[in-house]
Amino acid sequence: MKSVPKPIETLEIDLVVNDEHVRRTVPVRRLLSDFIREDLRLTGTHVGCEQGVCGACTVLVDGASVRSCIMLAVQVDGATIRTVESLAAASGLNRMQQSFKQHRAVQCGFCTAGILMTLEGVDPSEFPDERAIRELLVGNLCRCTGYQNIVAAVMHAWSRG
Question: I need a surface site. Which of 18, 69, 72, 90 has the fewest CB within 10 A?
């Protein structure tokens, strides 16, 4: 009788997270969001819906916005990841974060990291007006602000308002 091979349960991944080289062995079914939050202790990435709908878990993978709650950690082997923690500068808040603060675009703050990373992953020139910015943010759910202050903050940071 032929033996059945044992399924692979873990894999080693090698990647760059916020400019730091990371090599870890992870369970093959570990979500990227769990890897970021639990293994790397980068808790700015939030998990809301766990279905990729709310946008709170958004990170950049090789420059593209992705929902980390529906991506496996093993899928980012060899990639460069940026989380909201990468926005911090020695001098303080970056321009978008300052604009969010100035325009009171943050209330509970749960969605903010995902929104900031969505904005970080785009070319501002492709979103020339309020309507385009609102369309960009359609995948980021905010239950507190009603989006008006968020849009105003983005327009100000991108020097459009």
Answer: 90
**Residue ranges of domains in the chain, CATH in brackets:** 10-86 (3.10.20.30), 88-157 (1.10.150.120)
pLDDT for 14-45, tens place per residue? 999 999 999 999 999 999 999 999 999 999 99
Report how far residue 25's alpha carbon sits from residue 23's, in angstroms, rounded to the nearest whole number: 7
Number of Cβ within a 10 Å radius of residue 52: 16
Amino acid occupying residue 62: D
Residue with tokens 């709170």: 56
Q: 0.85 exceeded by the pTM?
A: yes
* CA separation for the pair 76, 57 (Å, rounded): 15
Backbone angles phi, psi at 76, to 5 degrees: -100, 10
What proportions of the chain, in percent to the nearest 5, are helix, strand and coil? 35, 20, 45
In the sheet where 64-67 sits, what is the strand order? 20-27, 10-17, 80-82, 58-61, 64-67
Question: Residue 104: which region, alpha, beta or left (left: phi > 0; alpha: psi -120 to 50)?
Answer: left
Query: In sequence order, which residues have a C-beta less than 8 Å from that of residue 20 and are 6 or more positions away?
Result: none
